[in-house]
Amino acid sequence: MLDNLRIRAFALFVKKYGEDELVRCLMHNKDNGTVYHYKDQLVGDYDKGQTEEEIIEIIKYGMRRNSI
Known about the structure:
By secondary structure, the protein is mostly helical. The protein has one domain (5-61). The chain has 3 helices and no strands. It starts with a helix and ends in a 7-residue tail after the last helix.
């Protein structure tokens, strides 16, 4: 499971900021148009990051503030 870049980034985010902050960010991002999974797919906006750091930036700020 940790072979997946997105999963590793989410786990690192939780380790650094905690589960409650992850949930807060995901809900905020969802309300602002960041998509976790595209319809009928297992990928979404969080998969656009090429590194763990880029994905964490998407988690923190959503796609609107991120140029990935």
